Amino acid sequence: MAVPAAVDLVDLALKATTAYQRPDLGLRLQHTRKRLADPAVRVLIVGEFKQGKSQLVNALVNAPVCPVDDDISTSVPTVVKHGETPAVSIVRDHGPDDERPPERTEVPIGRLAEFVSEAGNPDNRAKLSYAEVSLPRKLLAGGLVLVDTPGVGGLGSAHGAATMSVLPSADAVLLVSDAAQEYTAPEMEFLGAAMKLCPNVACVVTKTDLYPHWRRIVELDAGHLERAGVKADILPISSTLRLHAAQTQDAALMEESGFKELIAFLLNRVVARADDLDRRSTAQDVLDVCEQLATTMKSELTAQEDPERAEALVADLTSAKTRADALRQRSARWQTTLNDGVADLIADIDYDLRDRLRAIARDAEQLLEDADPADIWDQFAEWMHQQVSTAASANFVWTAERARYLAGQVAEHFAEGAEIALPTLRFEDTVGTMGGRVGALEQPVDEKFGIGQKLFTGMRGGYGGLLMIGLATSIAGLTLLNPISIGAGLLFGGKTVRDERKRLKQRRQAESKNAVRRHIDEVTFQVSKDSRDMLRRIQRDLRDHFTVLAEEVSTSLATSVAAAQSAVKTDTNERESRIRDLRAELTRIEALGERAKQLAAQAGQVTTGKQA
Length: 612
Hints:
Layout: H1 4-19, H2 23-37, E1 41-47, H3 53-61, E2 78-82, E3 87-92, E4 103-107, H4 113-116, E5 130-135, E6 144-148, H5 158-166, E7 172-178, H6 185-197, E8 201-206, H7 214-228, E9 233-236, H8 239-248, H9 251-257, H10 259-305, H11 310-327, H12 333-370, H13 373-415, H14 451-474, H15 483-568, H16 572-611
Parallel strand pairs: 1-6, 1-7, 2-5, 7-8, 8-9
Antiparallel strand pairs: 2-6, 3-4, 3-5
């Protein structure tokens, strides 16, 4: 649920903007109010296949919401959130270019496995976006949303690439790995990339009840994290013990399951941190509004109290307004930084993607050159898919890092050293679209060379050899059919078969290389288009955000100039009355600002308390 103090503060500030006739400031607060109305805190449960992710979700909510079995794997993300009554919906998006709302279908809880598991929906043939489960659970009442994702299969898998594109929109990530073995290279690679997109990451080691040596595995995992420079908590747990403890109300078993530490992490480090962020961002928005409202009143108050200074005050305010208006021009430094930065970033990202894919294409062509595509195609296609997914994922991670850095540069140039709040960069709009429309690598049609074709080809070559050598030996008085001509026919026939087999292999290699080039071109075209669209969207968000800030400042200064000029024309009696009114209004604005500062201070106190 939203922080009540933040909601009350925004509502009070909205009343102030209405009373002081500043609808432009009210628009900003309405966005703040809308943000507070959606308190969802998304936690992604990620990991390789069959590591206990679904069972972990079930144990957290103490309900069998996610299908679990030895031969069942998750194929569709399952979102578990709070609801007054248990309910299940399957959601299908129409596509990134379709403005229609997603298609939602209610299904019985018992049929969820038919839609989200590999057994019921292999490779997500139903093209579902996700399934949504609502449960009346206290753990979820604070806005916590658990997302059970398909096994990532490493950074280079299809699920891994899809999960990677969702990470920037998550508030936290739980990397799940069982206690059977220490972290693998794909897991460490995925974890390193995840930390760059969502720094709030914890590592969960599951199935401690099955493996007595789990403490040694935790030590090895901690060593891997330390060497990789990854600072993340490691939480060993047993979902089976947690479920049994909840059923039997066994406190000792609950303690042994390790879920108390995991739940404390979710509530104190994830949900509480999101609440702190709400407090700080709301306080900053309200303080900015108070500053804008107070600027006009202070200017008029100064002019009313000292009319002789009004002319100089108006000149200063006019100069400040000119500078604020300059921020709205295309020639402003922050505008230039933004435009040039996005253009450079698009070029760099496109080059990075093409460079990665060209290297893959060279390796692929070498593999096809060294072997017969007909013998290795299945393994080759899987390798190709993994390499391309790895390249796209790594390119996306770098794009996100560079975009955040660019946003910081734009903010610095806009404020010239002052602290400016940045908008949320919408990487989540890319979910399911980063190369999602790229088809699989197509296998070229193989020309059959069976026994019949071999016999026909051999006879054709043998006939030519027999006829040629037979005619030559006939000069020596031998018949056309003699041992020499027959042997030559067999040799020529065998050679013709071998040459034909070699020709067909070279043809398969050439067609396979062309298929690889077409696939690389398709991936380059689609992923580059998605990356450019994402960067252009970020550019528009940053441009609109800072333009609105410049307009707010310009409006405040324009109102201040008008108020200062008007103050000079008032008589003594009106001036004294107006001074009292302005002081009273400023007191109210200052009181509103003090409430905002207290809200921000509460966030700091809560954070300190949780860490202690």
